[in-house]
Amino acid sequence: MDSGENPVDLGTLGSPEDSTDPFLSSIFYCDFPDLPPWSLQPPRPPAQFQRRQLLLSEDMRAAQARVGCATAGRRHLVKVYYLNEEQKWDDLGMGHVSSTYVDRLQGMALLVQSECDGSVILESKINQDTSYQKQQGTLIIWSDAEDHGLALSFQEATSCCEIWEDICRIQGKDPCDEITRDLLEQLEEQRFDQIPEPGIMIELPTCEPSKLQQIADIVTSVLPSPISKERLALILQNENYIRQLLQLFRVCEDLNDVEGLRHLHEIIKGILYLNKLSLFEILFSDECIMDVVGCLEYDPALDQPQKHREFLTHNAKFKEVVPITDCELRQKIHQTYRAQYIYDILLPAPSIFEESFLSTLSTFIFFNKVEIVNMLQEDENFLPEVFAQLSDNSTDDNKRRELMFFCKEFCSFSQTLQPQNKDALFQTLTKLGILPALKIAMQRNDLQVRSAATDIFTYLVEYSPSMIRAFVMEEAQQLESGDLLINVVIEQIVGDADPELGGALHLAELLRSLLDPDNMSLAPNKCERSEFLNFFYKHCMHNFIAPLLTITAEDKCESDDILKFDKNCLNNYQTAQLLTLILELLTFCVQHHTYYIKNYILSKDLLRRVLIVMKSKHTFLTLCAIRLMRRMIGLKDELFNRYIIKGNLFEPVVNAFLSNGTRYNMLNSAVIEMFEYIRVENIKSLVAHIIEKFYETLESIQYVQTFKGLKIKYEQEKDRQSQIRNNLHNILYNKIFRRSAAKVLVKKEEKHFGENAEDDKAAVSPLGSDFQECYDKCIAVTTPEENEDTTGLPKRTSGGLKYTTPFAAGAGNGTGNPHCNRAVALVDYPDDEDEEKEEETPPRKKPHISS
Fold first, then answer.
1. By three-state DSSP, how is residue 139 classified?
2. Burial of 160 (0-12, 13-18, 19+ CB in 10 A)
3. Which tens digit of pLDDT belongs to each residue from 580-604?
4. What is the DSSP letter of 498?
5. Residue 140 β-bridge partners
6. What does the record give under GO molecular function (predicted)?
7. Cα–Cα distance measured from residue 181 to residue 172, given in angstroms and rounded to the nearest whole number
8. Distance (Å, rounded) from C-alpha 211 to C-alpha 336?
9. Secondary structure (3-state) at 31
């Protein structure tokens, strides 16, 4: 495709002819080519980029060796374009881009490595003064230090957004903006940089006490200008100026020169705000760090200097729980701690205009933590020795406390790792036995040890609940139920001595996370949800609800009346708090474990026990009980409804509602909402039960229409049922009556037929065998089957009586009558005509008798 076929407007500042600025004409007013097909062989880059590839590859390998895979960032497929001298975009190739820290550039950079051979296509440092622009959702465009236009074309918009967020985070900008820096400000700075004015040159005076104010003014004046900041950073780095300033600090402190010390405070703070990694390496070195802290003690805003050096020297002790043989690792730990202390304690919180001043310092601390974690993980002896001592029951309490503190901080550092590296780390910790070590630590009497173990357990649960569940189920096959990790956690919840139950609340949230079906895997060959829930309800649930069952035991509660209960223990605040935790988790189980918790509640008669706690003076506990019952009703499970009706479990709710009186509070609202839900959803069995049992008591409540509405629903259902019964009675009556009537008619036909036959025999004399044969054929009587279905109407197949007989007078005098042959039907059925057609073959006629 021709590169100029579909130009893309990369700016909105006017046409290129209207501007003489090379930056605008080269970057924002150029024809960006349509993206060619994604081929596997990228074109060769220009010569100046080819010469740099080997060196950049070596630098990249060195940088990755230092910070590990975690610093490489996430990789995204892109094409790299370079603006040539003819203001056309050349395709440099296709590869994977990542935001990575590079030692050679001393900062974060955009690195593109070829998809084919891994060679470096592009390496561009993300500078604070570089203006990046995102366009069309898949393009990022900028100009490098030599004013060469560069562009990244992403295959996916999501990849472009992630890299754009990295750039904005490093520059301290809002990712919602599509330009990281004001273009007019950048162009003005570039023009100003090209003017050879003597005032733009930065020259620091010699380090003397009399020049400190001048030095402080210069350092603070360059902070608004990125170009000036770069130049000042180069001067400070190359001329060993920082060490001279720190030597001057010792002199001023010995002379008690307060004014000079305050100027040094402004100078050192300004150097930190230059936000340069090369300067951080000097400031945080072992020989300089304490003097830097000393300078920051003399804040002009404070009347007296703070004693931070004394704290770092005497209070902050570095303890090696297991000897660290790597000197570089030990130095890195010291450096990171002091840098973090300066960042958090000594430097003021930056304003919205200074958010980017310390971005590199936070990045410096971040990568130091990554290095520490990687170096500890690579040590073959350190971590195994730590967990060996933690798993040993004979380890001294003080030693165990230090080991747990180390593990807590180590897991905290691990949160900075990339997901892939974090997976490898936690898998290593699991193999080394961190979970058995935590179980031992949680059973110790030392509160600090238990607290640290809880924090580590939190990291593990947040990382992978499935890993904890798998360990517990595997553990259940080897140990008794009481020794399981989950039961140890439950024991810590139940036995928390804190009146506010701070630790119990935290552990209850972790237990809820383990019981949450949403984070349980459902593989074709393994259903984690069913396996773990079966395990929990069999081995652990009884331990969790044991306090509830103990407080509401049968010897304290009469079986006929669940309200007659000694409520002194329920009025204890700590007991009420514990029961609240239990009821909250039971409510969660009702919502998410429908089948398992239903069987458990019905088998243990658990709701009856729960409603006993409504006699407590603590309203929050009463509300928890109502919430559990409301959740059960919300399932619309008829088994739950029948269980509530059979146990008359609305009675304690109604009594609590009436005891609350006319107070408009959460208890009042919760009860009314529950009854309103039953009315709106028209749960018929519960509506009938409430009206029949409690309407006389609730009828007087008129400030809401809930109970009146329940009564209306009840009457409507009652009328409907009455109408159904009446209709059913009519249907059954009609069926039974018609059947009986049909039988009566059949009997009448038979009786009538019998009388006529006797009369005929008496009036007509036999005429011989031939006449008798003819007579028999002329008479056809069909009766209904006696074994017809009793639920249907009687069905007649033939309902008439047909016979042929002469008049007696005609027989006597020998005369014939034209009407001597006739058919008589006693009951006219619609199917008589069909049967008459079937019987149209008449018997042989008898000759008339003539005179």
1. strand
2. buried
3. 999 999 999 999 998 999 999 999 9
4. -
5. 134, 152
6. protein phosphatase activator activity
7. 10
8. 32
9. strand
Q: Is the pTM of this model over 0.85?
A: no
Ramachandran angles phi, psi of 202, nearest 5°: -100, 130
Better pLDDT: 490 or 107: 490
CA 566 to chain CA centroid, nearest Å: 42
Cα separation values, 517 from 470, 529, 594, 640, Å: 14, 6, 11, 22
Q: How many residues does the chain have?
A: 851
Q: Residue 155 corresponds to which tokens in the numbers above?
A: 């295959």
Helix (H/G/I), strand (E/B), else coil: 209: helix
Q: Render 147-182 in DSSP notation, one character per residue.
A: --EEEEEESSHHHHHHHHHHHHHHHT--TTSSBSS-
Q: Which of 197, 215, 198 is nearest to 206 (CA)?
A: 215
C-alpha–C-alpha distance, residues 433 and 427, integer Å: 10
Q: What contacts 66, CB < 8 A, 6 or more positions away?
A: 103, 371
Residue pair 681/721 in contact by the 8 Å Cβ criterion: no
pLDDT at 31: 39
In the block, tokens 């592009």 appear at 122
Q: Are 163 and 134 in contact (CB under 8 A)?
A: no
Q: State the pLDDT at residue 407.
A: 92
Residue among 439, 440, 410 at smallest CA distance from 425: 410
Range 313-321 contact pairs with CB under 8 angstroms and sequence separation of 24 or more: 316/341, 319/402, 321/386, 321/399, 321/402, 321/403, 321/405, 321/406
Confidence of residue 763 (pLDDT cuts 50, 70, 90): very low
Angle at 188 between CA 182 and CA 190, to 5 degrees: 105
How far is it, in rounded angstroms, from Cα 294 to Cα 693? 79
**Strand order through the sheet with 780-781:** 780-781, 801-802, 823-824
With contact defined as beta carbons under 8 Å apart, do 505 and 582 qualify?
A: no
- The predicted-structure confidence for 677-734, as pLDDT tens digits, reads as follows 999 999 999 999 999 999 999 999 999 999 999 999 999 998 998 888 888 877 877 7
Q: Is the pLDDT of residue 623 over 50?
A: yes
DSSP per residue, 71-135: GG---EEEEEEEE-TTSBEEEEEEEEEEEEEETTTTEEEEEEEETTT--EEEEEE--TT---EEE
In terms of phi and psi (left: phi > 0; alpha: psi -120 to 50; beta: otherwise), the region of 108 is beta
Nearest Cα to Cα of residue 346 among 252, 286, 285, 283: 283
Task: Pick the closest to residue 83 from 131, 129, 146 (CA basis).
Answer: 146
Contact criterion met (CB below 8 Å) for 280 and 229: no
Specify the pairing of strand 522-523 against strand 149-154: unpaired
The structure tokens listed for 383 are 């971590």
